[in-house]
Request: fold
Amino acid sequence: MRASLIQIRVDEGESVAERRQRAAGLVRAQEGADLVVLPELWTTGAFAYEAFATEAEPLQGPTHEAMAKAARDAEVWLHAGSVPERAPDGTLYNTALVFSPSGELAASYRKIHRFGFDRGEAVLMGAGSEPVTVRLPETTAGLATCYDLRFPELFRTLTDAGAETLVVSAGWPERRRAHWTLLARARAVENQAYVLACGTAGTHAGVAQAGYSVVVDPWGEVLAEAGADEEVLTAEFDPAKVAVTREQFPALKDRVLGLDPPRR
Reply:
């Protein structure tokens, strides 16, 4: 499979509408890829808290419309990153959207672990409750968003649900960049799965972004890594390597905790 991670730059000098159209153009330019991935909250910026409510949109809002058309035009599977979703009851969610090559919404995922402790996303947005996987032509993808990366139990749940490729969209800050790479590799090794982690470049509300989007194989080897600036990171990977790795080193079969009933 060929994956293209669009590490888009998010700065205040560009309107949401302008960035939405620019992102759509970047997606169309990836024609020939199997999977394209955008980062978390790229319409507003992950730390632009004041924009969450003003730019929130329904699930089938303007970003859905633009990204569905871009996926259809490029004939790619598109993980369109996440947007601030306003649910019918008014609750805001950090919601990721996945489109098929026909432009159909194949899956949506409301971020479960909200960042901010007692401020920001943690108090402004509701928490999702359901892990989500989506079947792609050659692999099953498990969806996660940014802060989720710090919670291994979510990724094990996705693995138990059949995920072989773990797709993470993020707006990860530069000051914790070392954690970003470390955790991406850890999630790949412990689940013997590919990790495709796409972050943003630029600055969100004064918070410099890490960039360094990365593709990691089931052994924890980095197949491709971006720099700090806006770029499209493209990598070829073999989904069959997941089954081979799990067969050659069957660590997942030796699990004891977290099973129902536990193995003896």
